[in-house]
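Progress against Task 2.4 (sequence-to-structure conversion) is shown through the following example record, which the project officer requested during the mid-term review.
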Amino acid sequence: MSSESPDKRRKMESALNQLKKHTVVVADTGDFNAIDEYKPQDATTNPSLILAAAKMPAYQHLLDQAIKYGIAQGGTEEEQVANTMDKLFVSFGLEILKKVPGRVSTEVDARLSFDKDEMVAKALKLIALYKEAGISEDRVLIKLSSTWEGIQAGKELEEKHGVHCNMTLLFSFAQAVACAEAKVTLISPFVGRILDWYKENTDRKSYEPHEDPGVLSVTKIYNYYKKYGYRTVVMGASFRNTGQVKALAGCDLLTISPGLLGELSQDHSAVTKMLNVEKAKACDLEKVHMDEKTFRWEHNEDRMAVEKLSDGIRKFAADAIKLETMIKEKMLNVKNGQ
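Structure tokens generated for the chain above:
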């Protein structure tokens, strides 16, 4: 009788609650009203998620407030739009922080991905806006593209300014090693977009979770970090299905869309811890060093990573431009009505 009770308990317990025992669960959304029921620890945003949320009627007041702020700051139209964008990203972050006990990730404009100094300046501006609203830098992660310049911006922000960074658009092992050596707080290796590439560029169209190329990539990075004692933590991101999520149970953090969080909350199958430090320490990965020349060569050797990093930057930049266009139109209406 007693031997059955753990199974019975497991049947009642959702996959989401089981996952939370092994991994910090993060909500990947700008729609902060979708966060409440899943009780994540942290939340992440990006320009595409903010654009989607900014179009929703429920969040128009945040857009309106940001536009008023941007206009009040004065300067050229370009400066007013830039100030509005910064304010809007931080406004969404502030609302999210009312819903989660941990941290929010706010992304630096992808169009700055190859300019270290501009990325640092933008990050410090975002942190200053959070501080004005009474939020310390400990509750904010600044998201930066994992280009060589982005990684060096992360290094500078961590070392000189105490700003915690989340390195995003990470697809190659070279990117992961460079981030660890830069001692950034956290990396977001993308799972789903890696799978997308393999489906589009090879004859194989389906993968079991344990052989999914995105899952294997994150597992390798996690094992390398834990084997060699790096402090940088791994947050798997960009999931296409719950199988990928469950295959990475035990990863430091996983950031998951509300849709998949909903599926996991309705799923009552057993979740097994797949990643752990002991297993990682026993793996046979050799230690490598990533200076700029090695990074550029090794990353360039990975066709998938090169294409997905470029594509990711272009897509985030395109959505930032769409958001700017939306802001300009609304700004014009506000000015004409004054």
